[in-house]
Amino acid sequence: MIRNESGFTLIEVMVALAIFAVMAGAVALANTQNLMAAQMIKEQTEARWVNQNALAELRLDALPAPGTRRINTEFNGQSWRVEVEVSAVDMPLLGASLRHIELRAYSDASEQAADVLVAVLGAH
To answer: Which of 21, 68, 88, 91 is deepest in the core (most CB within 10 A)?
Structure first.
């Protein structure tokens, strides 16, 4: 009598499961990296808005005095710290007062700036 066997051997099933496990791990890692990248982009975008808002407030006031200051603000339900560094720029030929301004936005839980914005403000 001839036996017609069909199906997989234990070795074949184990190899297939090992391949599936490696592929599932790779997909999970890719998803995690994508989520982290999306969160970083969101934080950087919000930090840019925070810096631009702080710069807009500086433009509304008189030309800021040189020095360093810290602004605490809230944006989109999150607390932010903006460090503003203002330095005078001498332009005697133009007869204008200029200020070099560097703004660094930090989220409340971070020690690294999420965004840095550099601008020049002037007055005649």
So the answer is: 88
65, 87 contact by CB (below 8 A):
no
For 10-123, CATH number?
3.30.1300.30
- Amino acid code (one letter) for 118: V
> Which of 82, 76, 84, 83 shows the shortest CA–CA distance to 42?
76
Digit-coded pLDDT (tens) for 73-117: 999 899 999 999 999 987 766 667 889 999 999 998 788 999 999
Give yes or no for a contact between 116 and 102, defined as CB atoms under 8 angstroms apart: yes
Residue with tokens 């936005």: 105
CA distance 100 to 90: 10
